[in-house]
Amino acid sequence: MTEKQKLHHYIGIEMNRQSWILLGREDRNKQDNTRMINFAKISLYHWQKSPKYKPINEQRGTWLISHVYAVMGDGRSALDYAKETWRLTEKYKFKDFDLAYANEAMARAYASLKNIDACSEWKKQAEKTGRLIAEVEDKKYFYEDFIAEPWFGCK
Description:
By secondary structure, the chain is mostly helical. It has a domain at 79-155. It has helices at 3-23, 30-49, 55-72, 75-91, 96-112, 116-131, 136-147.
């Protein structure tokens, strides 16, 4: 692996980590939100340049971007990235953990758009596929994210 490739790989991981740090903050401000979405997009860009890139990295990167937009309340952008997450999930036939997250992305995007009917349907699907996650640790991560707010009133 060249130094440039190592740098892409490192930045992809680090920007993902920085996105999660900001997602965990309760006192985020507008500047934090801007940084958070930029970090998520930068993470995906660098993952795509990493020599360890696989399609699953793209699916997870688009999920993170959708999630960040949804948390920020930008439902239109969240839905665009959720649909891309879903497209990649279907194209590569991702199952288990990644299928559950693709369903969650659609649910949360619709929630942020205040489309409670669509949110409820996708959320039921996310919960159903979440129960099927094989690895205990993966299931734990999924449900921690799944129960986290905001759900914008979607039950």
